[in-house]
Amino acid sequence: MEIPKITHNGLSFVNVTKPNLEQLKFLNKEFGFSMLNLEDYLYKTQIPKIEVYDGYTLLVLDTPYTQQPVRSNGNKPGTNNSLVGRMFPPRGLRRKRILLGEVDFFIGKDYVVVLHDERTPQINHLFELCKHDENQRKELMGKGAPFLFYRITDQLVDTSIACVDELNNTIESIDEQLEEKSSAAVIEDISITRRNIVVFETMIKPTLPLFTDLEKGKYTELGGNMIPYWSNILDHVQKVWDRLEDSKELIEGIARSHESMLTVRTNEIIKVLTMFTAIMLPLTFVASLYGMNVELPFGQLPGAFFMLLAIMTGLAVLMILYFRSRDWL
């Protein structure tokens, strides 16, 4: 079976995109990976973790991706794309949910096997660099399996940084729209942004202790001179977490401000309608009273219509003056 593979100085880089069951069985036979771990990837039942086995180390990481919206060039909805190298959808198309994709690394003494799908094209990009550029192949694969894993992980972390940047841009855009009349659109933006932040937190939270352990040298297979690199990754992940916390507080504040503005607008509308009803009520009563087919005072006098009109106008003016004196109008 043909599996995408590059070898340099005895180190193999195996890149498997959207693996099927047959390919997983081949990896089990070729490298001795546990079939349980391989099937876990197939059914997406794992969370970020590090597990050490006889001969290899398994690392499971999550990475964010979003769905490409419909665009004028005819792209279909539902096509998944990484956030690396591109911006969030623009204002009219930005209401897309951020989802999480899984990447599994099997790291041995002389190989790095990566299982992922089309949601992480940056891994395919690194693989193509190693395949076609000798200098890049030496740079990425010339320092051993842990360093190659570090370079791939660094790309995945950059995905999260870019994604948080665009989340912050979205929050700024929402803040600018608070004075607009399209309240329903702002509410939708706020709701989706809150949800996206929570999704990110569920990804970053279990990732932090993984790189903390790597920085402390808990896993000897990935330690040694790699500790400064893990410290760098941990620093970036911690910054992503801190910025997510700041973004969460900011969007919550914007949401409360927007709710307060909606409450004020609703109260203004209700106040106007209530005053209109209060003014019209006595006028409606007088009109209904003199509209009945019975004898009423002054009903038969010449000019009764104009007299009643003057009475109704006077009542309306008196009620308006009263409302203004109470500062209700």
SS summary, helix count: 8
User: In the residues, how many domains can be counted?
Assistant: 2
β-strand amount: 5-15%
Specify the structural class: alpha+beta
The number of E-state strands comes to 7
SSE pattern, N- to C-terminal: EEHHEEEEEHHHHHH
Q: What composes the largest sheet?
A: 7 strands, mixed
Please give the alpha-carbon distance between the first and last residues.
81 Å
- Mean pLDDT score, rounded? 82
Described by the principal axes of the CA atoms, the overall outline is: rod-shaped
The helix fraction, in percent, is 55-70%
Task: Identify low-pLDDT runs.
Answer: 68-93
Which topology of the largest domain does CATH recognise? Beta Polymerase, domain 2
The CATH class name of the largest domain reads Alpha Beta
* CATH structural architecture of the largest domain: 2-Layer Sandwich
Oligomer: single chain
CATH superfamily placement of the largest domain: CorA soluble domain-like
Instruction: Report Rg.
Output: 33 Å
Textual characterization of the structure:
- This protein folds into 2 domains: 5-258, 2-Layer Sandwich (Beta Polymerase, domain 2), CATH 3.30.460.20; 264-325, Magnesium transport protein CorA, transmembrane region (Methane Monooxygenase Hydroxylase, Chain G, domain 1).
- The protein contains 8 helices and 7 strands, in the order ββααβββββαααααα.
- It is of the alpha+beta class.
- Helix 5 (145-176) packs antiparallel against helix 6 (183-215) and helix 7 runs antiparallel to helix 8.
